Amino acid sequence: MLRKITLLTAFLAFVVSAQAQKEFKFGVYVEPSISFFASNDKDVEPDGSNVGFTIGLLGEYYFGNSDNYALIMGGNFSLGRGGSLFYEDGGRLFPDSELDVESYTVNGTGVAGTDGDDILLNPNTKVKYKLNYLEIPVGLKLRTNELGESYMRAFFQLPVLTIGIPVSARASIETAENNNFSTTEGNTYYTPEKVKGENVYKDIFPLQIQLGAGAGVEYSPNEEGGLLLTAGLFYNYAFLDAVGTNQLFNASNVLEDNKARTGFHNIGLRIGIVF
Asked: Fewer CB within 10 Å: C terminus or N terminus of the chain?
């Protein structure tokens, strides 16, 4: 929590120190979005997308005696990042989380505990992740000159590097029941019909880095400039593994460390006001 407060304080200090300069503009925006996972492992497959939402603040510092080039820095709160993953082999998917044991059925021998380390999920398990991040984007903005006498400009943000820290993570778990499945760990496995809202924050990687770009238009409602209305399409890719270390069953039903890298893509429609 202290680290998150420090990051926000640093951003606010940037805003306050720059507002006195005429080259600085400050804006707010909202961004409905769609995100979905990518995986480099055929046994962990993307299987659905999330509808998410971002609310953010953005500072633009124009340089080079021009209003066409700016450095950008902001602070975002993003909801619903992630998507769904299909684990073909099942396994110990949430070793560090405390799951709701009453939602699981014990098959074979053993007693379920509340620690996810005790809960083995069947093959053909689908997990829908909803990840919320506190984010800081930094990048470069390019603007065209006014398009005719329309009071409109096109803009491009490229590249945009975003550092994200997860603040919460929930998962909905659904798996096919398989009474013939056995493991090397005492024939113990657990089958939920469908469990929603499990807190899996402890099993999410504690840092995310995203690289992206955006393009759109700005409109000035008055001839002398000032207030700007903006709209644009933005894309970014989180290239660190969003899901932390877990274990999957191999062909011999023995648990092995999961080597899959599961970053996510995000596409959003950003609508904002720049002062």
From this structure: N
Which residues are CB-neighbours of 127 under 8 A, at least 6 positions away?
84, 85, 87, 93, 171, 172, 173, 174
Contact predicate 90/122, CB 8 Å: yes
- Give CA angle at 116 (118, 239), nearest 5°: 135
Mind listing the pLDDT tens digit for each residue in 64-75? 788 899 999 999
Sheet containing 255-257: give its strands across.
Answer: 91-92, 247-249, 255-257
Question: Are the beta carbons of 267 and 33 closer than 8 angstroms?
Answer: yes
In the chain, what is the straight-line distance between the N-terminal and C-terminal CA atoms, in Å?
30
Q: Is the peptide bond before 159 cis (omega within 30 degrees of 0)?
A: yes
Largest CA distance in the chain: 76
Cβ neighbors of 242 (< 8 A, separation 6 or more) are: 37, 81, 82, 129, 131, 204, 205, 208, 262, 263, 264
- Taking Cα atoms as reference points, which of 82, 60, 57, 58 lies closest to residue 71? 60
Calpha distance 272→28 (Å, rounded): 6
Distance CA(139)–CA(218), nearest Å, equals 18
- State the alpha helices, DSSP H only, in the chain: 2-19
pLDDT digits (tens, 9 = 90+) for 177-195: 665 566 655 555 667 778 8
Smallest CA-to-CA distance from 104 within 200, 194, 192, 198 is with 192
Cα dihedral across residues 198, 204, 206, 207: positive or negative = negative
